[in-house]
Specification:
Layout lengths: L1 E11 L9 E7 L25 H6 L8 E4 H10 L6 E5 L9 H9 L3 E6 L12 E4 L9 H6 L2 E6 L4 H11 L7 E5 L4 H14 L2 E2 L3 H4 L4
Parallel strand pairs: 2-4, 4-5, 5-6, 6-7, 7-8, 8-9
Antiparallel strand pairs: 1-2, 1-3
The structure holds iron/sulfur cluster (SF4).
The site of iron/sulfur cluster has 12 residues, from loops.
Length: 218
């Protein structure tokens, strides 16, 4: 099965539970969610005009709208060729769950990788049962209760105190699940950071600060 992929790179995971973990990021092209503060707007559309070859994609150095259809075998070949050592794979986007990720996650797991999906939770999540699912709900978007139930962590972006109402509302829909919640200030906003710290302490949640943006890596 081929997936439209925007970029593949090795770095350190900067967000949520796996912060600090060496990771291979696979960024899928396409997202219908359209968050206002999105920092990967170049992934939104999957236009044929921006389709490039596999060879061009693996050499790509900049983040732009170009993408290529790639399958799991090619991904594994590329990881081997580049001699990447990370054993954790983060499948992100865009919104990766507009695609069926069962095949991709299963193939990566067969080769010894631990998979993580980062999703808005607005689409049905299709992946292996061992995949770590990070649901990052967006305010005023339709996060599915099934996504919250499947999640291993909830990474919630915060700009103002009122943003917490939507999170509390979602958590109340899945009362029987013990959720691992991370609050993450949007765009390193200092006021948002204070709100996150305050509420993490009150609720015994955890803080996610987008470490990669502070240490200036991708
Ligand atoms: S779901 Fe993610 S990729 Fe899509 S618009 Fe929102 S932040 Fe951007």
């Amino acid at each position: 099965m081929n997936y439209p992929i925007n970029e593949i790179f090795q770095t350190i995971q900067g967000e949520g539970y796996y912060t600090g973990t060496p990771s291979i990021f696979i960024r899928l092209q396409g997202c219908p969610v359209r968050c206002q503060w999105c920092d990967t707007k170049y992934t939104w559309t999957c236009s044929n005009n921006n389709q490039i070859s596999y060879e061009e994609l693996v050499k790509k150095k900049i983040s732009d709208q170009t993408w290529s259809y790639i399958n799991a075998i090619q991904i594994l070949e590329n990881i081997k060729k580049k001699e990447w050592t990370a054993k954790h794979v983060v499948i992100t986007g865009g919104e990766p769950c507009i695609y069926n990720l069962l095949y991709l996650t299963t193939e990566l797991e067969k080769q010894g990788f631990k998979c993580q999906i980062e999703t808005s939770g607005t689409k049905i999540i299709k992946c292996s049962s061992n995949t770590w699912v990070t649901v990052s709900p967006k305010q005023h978007q339709n996060t599915l209760p099934a996504s919250i139930l499947r999640s291993d962590e909830i990474k919630y972006p915060i700009l103002k105190q009122e943003d917490l109402f939507y999170l509390e509302k979602m958590l109340s829909m899945v009362k029987n699940k013990k959720c691992r919640v991370f609050l993450q200030p949007i765009s390193q906003n200092q006021e948002a950071l204070k709100i996150c710290i305050k509420n993490c302490i009150i609720k015994n949640w955890r803080l996610s600060i987008q470490l990669h943006k502070y240490i200036l890596i991708k």
